[in-house]
Every structure is written in structure tokens, then in C-alpha cells.
Amino acid sequence: MATTSTGQSEVPEAERYILLAMYTVVLVVGVFGIGLMIDTLKSNVRSVTTMAVLNLIIVHMVFLLTVPFRMYFYACGHWSLGRGFCKFISVMIHAHMYIAVIFYVIILVVRCITFYSQRDRLEFYRRLHALAASLVVWVVILLVIFPVTLIEYGPDTGASTNQCFVFGEALKDKATAAINYLLCAVVLLVTSVLMAIQLWILGAIYKKHGRTALSHQEFSAQLKSMCFVMVILICFAPYHAFRVYYVATYFHETDKLILKRLELKNEIFLAVTAFSACDMLIFITRARWKSILSWCWICS
């Protein structure tokens, strides 16, 4: 899971500004969406979906704290905060991506279960059980997965200390390449399966209610589920599809110019994954959007 440029070469100015703009949008819109979601989220915390969404918000918040450091690097064109901290910031975008996928899958699976079981929501027996389940997930992430990833991620290849995210050489290792292929295959397969299931559910609802389906709450709820699938499809699938080609080429290619161009493309695809931090906008109701737009109109 390595990224960006080789050697001591700086990221070209055009790409730096593109990446800076992308991360700026992610930070502003992500913070805005989370702020509104925290303000409006008043659901039952025993609900499995609600707890998954709350955990997803925490994941986004932690990731967004690291975004300003990426913006700093792309704005300045150099890194002066130490190699270890660079490694940590680089790991965080990957950690955010895969942890977010886990919670997306939980949310979508729970919504599928409630649809087929004809229940309003799937709940834990007690609030303590909900907190315990979240704690177990975070213990595994923080005490097992994250430390191992941080230790094994991005071996030192002698790159300039003024540059950051210079971990492409790790892909020359067969084990690292194999892990990347496996992750790509899993994410793309999960995306395809979730998309197929969600389309089938929407089709079943439309078949049941006909033209009046759009006015049913059941259909609206499943549209939100489809929005989560679309977040995975738009933000994560392109990166992993390109990643397969990127890893295969990097493993065999020796031309540094070709590798540099590939790494820049990979970094842009990676930046697209960060837009998943804006997903809380899915939950903002039409009435809330009207009040926000009215407030903006008054302020202007």
C-alpha cells in the first residue's frame, strides 16, 4: 500500500495545486457535513446502524485531522516534520479508507437484513452491548491492525527527508505486491456484490409499489443505502482498479520517469478516496438543506 514519488524529485507544480485543491475541498466539506450530522443525529444509540454511523463519523474526524498536513506538503512542496510523522500521515489515508469500508459494509448489511426481515431497525439488546461491540472493533483496529500496518508500511528507501509519501519502492517486494492485489480484489468484489444487492432491492420495491414507490419511506431508506454504495463505487473502486495496474507495472518497470508519472496518477486516485469523508451529507434532510440555503441567502 505504498504511494507517491520516487527519489528526491518534487511533485510537479500543477499536480501539487490539484492535490491541494482536492484536500481543501475534502477538509471543508467533510467538517461541514460532520458538524451538521452531529447536530441532527438523535437516533436510538441501540440501533446497529446508528452505532455504525457514529463510528464512521469518528473515523472521518480522525482522518480529517491529518488532512491539513497533506495540504501543507502540497502547498510548500517540501516536508520538514520528520520521516516518522510523514509515515504516520501516509498510513492514515489508507487506514481511513479500509476502516470506512468496514463500517459501510456493516451499515449496508444491516439495512439488507432489516429489509428482508420486515423490521424498522436492528437493535442491540442494551446500550452497553452497542458500546461493547464498538469497543471490540476499535480494540482490533488500534491494538492489532494499525500498529502492524504502521511498522510494516513504507520501508526507508533513502529518499530525501524533504519529501513525503515516498514509499513506492515497497511494491518491489512480492509479499507487499500480493497484499495489494488481495485488497484490491476484495474491495472490488465487495463493491460489485453490494451494488447488485442494492439494485435488486430497489427493483423489488418498485415492482411491489409501481409508480408510487418513490413516495414510500421504504424506497427512500434504500436510496440512502444506494448512496453509500455509490460512495464506495466512486471514491474507492477507481483507486483499487487503477492500483492493480499500478502495482503490476511498478513491480516490473525500471524506468524512473514512467514510475514517477504512475505514482502521480496513483496519488490523485488516492486523493479521490478522501472524498468519502464527505458522506455525512447523505443524511441531511431536504428541510435542513432549505434552512441552510436560506441562511446563506440572508448572510449574503
UniProtKB/TrEMBL annotation:
<feature type="transmembrane region" description="Helical">
    <location>
        <begin position="268"/>
        <end position="285"/>
    </location>
</feature>
<dbReference type="GO" id="GO:0016020">
    <property type="term" value="C:membrane"/>
</dbReference>
<feature type="domain" description="G-protein coupled receptors family 1 profile">
    <location>
        <begin position="29"/>
        <end position="283"/>
    </location>
</feature>
<feature type="transmembrane region" description="Helical">
    <location>
        <begin position="53"/>
        <end position="75"/>
    </location>
</feature>
<keyword id="KW-0472">Membrane</keyword>
<feature type="transmembrane region" description="Helical">
    <location>
        <begin position="95"/>
        <end position="116"/>
    </location>
</feature>
<keyword id="KW-0297">G-protein coupled receptor</keyword>
<feature type="transmembrane region" description="Helical">
    <location>
        <begin position="178"/>
        <end position="206"/>
    </location>
</feature>
<dbReference type="InterPro" id="IPR047160">
    <property type="entry name" value="GP183-like"/>
</dbReference>
<dbReference type="InterPro" id="IPR017452">
    <property type="entry name" value="GPCR_Rhodpsn_7TM"/>
</dbReference>
<keyword id="KW-0807">Transducer</keyword>
<feature type="transmembrane region" description="Helical">
    <location>
        <begin position="227"/>
        <end position="248"/>
    </location>
</feature>
<dbReference type="Pfam" id="PF00001">
    <property type="entry name" value="7tm_1"/>
</dbReference>
<feature type="transmembrane region" description="Helical">
    <location>
        <begin position="128"/>
        <end position="151"/>
    </location>
</feature>
<keyword id="KW-1133">Transmembrane helix</keyword>
<dbReference type="InterPro" id="IPR000276">
    <property type="entry name" value="GPCR_Rhodpsn"/>
</dbReference>
<keyword id="KW-0812">Transmembrane</keyword>
<feature type="transmembrane region" description="Helical">
    <location>
        <begin position="20"/>
        <end position="41"/>
    </location>
</feature>
<protein>
    <recommendedName>
        <fullName>G-protein coupled receptors family 1 profile domain-containing protein</fullName>
    </recommendedName>
</protein>
<keyword id="KW-0675">Receptor</keyword>
<dbReference type="GO" id="GO:0004930">
    <property type="term" value="F:G protein-coupled receptor activity"/>
</dbReference>
